[in-house]
Amino acid sequence: MHEEPTLRALADRRGIGIGAAVAYGPLVGEPEYARTLAREFNMLTPENVMKMGPLRPARDRFDFDQADALVRFAQEHGMRVRGHTLVWHNQQPAWLTQGNFSRDEMLAILKEHIQTVVGRYRGQVYAWDVVNEAVNDDGTLRDTVWLRTIGPEYIELAFRWAHEADPAALLFYNDYNNEGMGAKANAIYRLVRDLKAKGVPIHGVGWQMHIRIGPGGYAGLEAMAQNLERLAALGLQVQITELDVQVQKSQAPMAERLEQQATLYGDLMRFCLAHQACTAFVLWGFTDKHTWIPGFTKHEDWPLIFDREYRPKPAYYALREALAGGHTTTHRR
Ligand code: G3I
Question: How would residue 331 be classed by pLDDT, with cut points 50, 70 and 90?
């Protein structure tokens, strides 16, 4: 029987990264999860286990077991790792948020954190989301423990320390609702432009893209192209880092929703393939069985490309056709 090429085989041919966020539990507990991941993707992002909360249960104690296991899995299957994430306001350990540390202590904690984590995976994590979600929707800097104690320069310092710890790793600023040309994307553009101008080691911007079908579900391809071009003009890469496409709010029959979802996945993959600066396309999970969306929206959803039984959905075939250079509307199966 003729075997269809996998997403990763096609992506390898096109020279693009195709990845998924990976949860530790199913990776070790469900053979079908691990099999599908290794078969279809050439890149992975740890969904939670490299964040500061899980990784650093006490100030003087790091717990690398699960992160190591994910990195090992990637190595065994020839996949690149996107490290996620060094500086964030969420999933932080209580000892940090409740520690009432001085500016100097926070500087020392952050430097030690970044250098320990990036240093441990030097040469093994190809790209890091160094700073995650530091900008509000209105373009101001988010009020976080880092901004409050250190000041805005925590961003620049984080990039510098990460680069010192692994000069070969690509360093990203990552955020959501930032793919278009709105206030937030504009502020991020200015932020990274200023970092570049100062010689801060930054190599790209991540667009998370937790989006949905239907009007206003995301910024649209035209705005994305405009934004990508200005970022590329700074010499930066753009990666789609956390894509998932919610369908819960639509009233259309499910089959139709899944077709709309597929069209979106395909359009976005073609967008990425059409722009040299777009170097990776990473989904936030791959099976509807394991997705953060219902936990967050409190509604059932089907945002990914495999169903709960690991069967490919229309979105899977749309990605495959886009990667193969075809059209999403014909011969999907
Ligand atoms: O592991 C603990 C477990 O020990 C505990 O018993 C249980 C009780 O709540 O929680 C478990 O932790 C949960 C963790 O996921 C692992 O499953 C947290 O409660 C839960 O909040 C956490 O959610 C993660 C979320 O980030 C936190 O903000 C999602 O899995 C993860 O998909 C999501 O990922 C973020 C990206 O990092 C950044 N961009 C947005 C994206 C979606 O929110």
Answer: very low
The Cα 115–Cα 166 span in angstroms is: 9
Instruction: Give the residue, out of 48, 82, 211, 246, with the most ligand 1 atoms within 8 A of its beta carbon, to mutate for a pocket test.
Output: 48
Taking the C-alpha atoms of residue 27 and residue 134, their distance in angstroms, rounded to an integer, is 30
How many angstroms separate the most distant Cα atoms in the chain?
Answer: 65
Buried b (16+ CB within 10 A) or exposed e, 277-286: bbbbbbbbbb
pLDDT, residue 328, reads 42
pLDDT tens, 307-329?
999 999 999 999 999 999 954 44
Q: Which of 51, 91, 128 to mutate to test the pocket of ligand 1 (most atoms within 8 A of CB)?
A: 91
Asked whether the whole model's pTM tops 0.85, one would answer yes
pLDDT value of residue 48: 98
Distance CA 128, CA 83 (A): 4
Is 156 marked active-site?
A: no
Instruction: Assess whether 133 carries a catalytic annotation.
Output: yes
